[in-house]
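Memo to structure team: turn this sequence into structure tokens by end of day. - J.P.
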Amino acid sequence: MTEIVLVRSRELDKEHVFGRPRRDLPMEDERISAFAKRFGIGVLFVLATAVGIVSLRYLLPVVPFPARLPNVHLKPTLIAVHAGFAAVALLVGPWQFVFRRGGAAHVARGRIYIACVALGTLAAIALALTAATGVVAELGFLMLAALWATTTALAVRAVRARRTAAHATWMMRSYALTAAAITLRIELGLMFAFHIPFEVGYPAIAWACWLPNLLAVECLLLVRTYRIA
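Reply from structure team:
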């Protein structure tokens, strides 16, 4: 009996020295996870709102501070169509993740998002076919447009089949590709700031503006699957 008491005393000492007992860790992890989720959505809201509103300038008769890209001057109508619809999709998307419960507002926002992706994709394909610097950039933006449309279509298919979990998953992928508008501008800014030659940086950005976003979502989905399992 004395030995049992001594062993338990040592265990309590270890818990005192090394932190809380293991049984308390899941609750702490849950709090950290909830904070990280709120912080991430907050950052997304700020970036999406800023980039979305700024992108709407391409709908103005005279565009202030246009991007230093050839298609901006060569195909202003296509740029306006793509930028306008993509900007609305970018602005609408975060609200769908915050208010995920079904309802009239959620459905209305979803329809706006889907329509904007569809129309934005058509303009994106036309622009991608003549992307600056050649075939590498063209393929990168064409792949982005194709995946943008495909993931959104699969999200629509899932919700029509009442598979809400699959719908949410595909919408996360779709919005990750929509958010390429954010990463594209960050990477273009870095390219100009560090004086990277346009012929070198732009083809890389055509892929780097969306691949990391999609990979990040896939990692998040894997983590969620692991926690559920």
